[in-house]
Amino acid sequence: MGGCFSDMKGAKEAVGGVNQKATNNNNDAVDFFYTSQGFQPLFTQVELSFSAYDLLDMDITSKSDPMLVVYAKKEDGKFEELGRTEVITNCLNPEWIEKINIAFHFEIVQPLVFHVYDIDTTYHSVSTKTLKLKDQDFIGEATCNLSEIVTKQNKSLTLKLQSKNGNINGKKNLGTVTIRAEETVSSRSVVEIIFRCSHLDNKDIFSKSDPFLRISRMVESGGTIPICKTEVIDNNLNPKWKPVCLNFQQFGSKLTLDRFRILTSKFVAIRKMQKSIADLEKLCHERKGANFVVPSKRKGQEKVLKGQLFVDQYNEKEQFSFIDYISSGFELNFMVAIDFTASNGDPQKSDSLHYIDVSGRLNSYQK
């Protein structure tokens, strides 16, 4: 189980896991559908790297000092700057080191615009983030959709630079820019764990406890952030939960301490402990359990309890993403059917919701 989207059944299902939350304002209909169904939009983080070839030399006594700026083009036509590369001096074939991270949403169109500038020598000591672009020489621009990059088998796309009016600037060759996309490794590496407990305390009077396990990540401030919760197992003091799937982005590193808390379905705490992911891996290999303890203000005087946490399975693996499928040739077919009910009127008449206007005006269904 593990990678569930939401706790739709009142703590009866696992939540957390490999799901991530993203906001999406580019497609209200898609966003509304996901939200109404209790899901979050499907996306993955990709890292873009850039290089250029045969750039137009804007300098006289030396070569251009290029910098690339990336923009996302919004629905209203406005540009939102996503990031800038560093400046590479005296180079017409730059390979920039600076990368830009962006969330790829497969269900929406994400237009990107790339501007290449020649940075004046007097600005080389200025941070690229504070550079005024209007004071720099514009070399050229290129546009594409993010999907055009990630769907390539080698996840690389080369574009010809154009002038701002959309032309290739007459006979002048402005050069090309190559964009490469790489899915963020941390979002692909996952670990699947099967937890079980034995001899838990009973918190109910007329029956046994209904336990579930909640995992939280310890943060530098000393607090905790919940990252996953198993399903509830009714009336059981020796529960074994379904597999939980966590990605490495959620718990930071194997050495990061996580808090494992056992609660009942009524959110009454049974016991808790702190372990790192490395500790869990060790418990699995050694086939041993870790005892829950009652903390004490005095170090070394914690009360060791009979209840134990076991790791029956610990399996690290690479999770194949949607990008892997589409870059390997996977295709989606989308079909739409409209029910031409009589209540909507004769589609040949202009007052019908299904009427196709010869002037091109869209009807309610087309909108």
TrEMBL record:
Topology relative to the membrane: Lipid-anchor
Domain C2: residue ranges: 24-159, 171-294
Gene Ontology MF term list: calcium-dependent phospholipid binding; metal ion binding
Record Pfam families: C2
Predominant location: membrane
InterPro entries membership: C2_dom, C2_domain_sf, C2B_Copine, Copine
GO biological process: cellular response to calcium ion; defense response
Cell location: Cell membrane
Entry keyword set: Calcium, Cell membrane, Lipoprotein, Membrane, Metal-binding, Plant defense, Repeat
Keyword Protease attributed: no
Record-level GO cellular component terms: plasma membrane
SUPFAM superfamilies linked: C2 domain (Calcium/lipid-binding domain, CaLB) (SSF49562)
Family (UniProt): Belongs to the copine family.
Record PANTHER family: COPINE (PTHR10857), PROTEIN BONZAI 3 (PTHR10857:SF120)
Protein name: Protein BONZAI 3-like
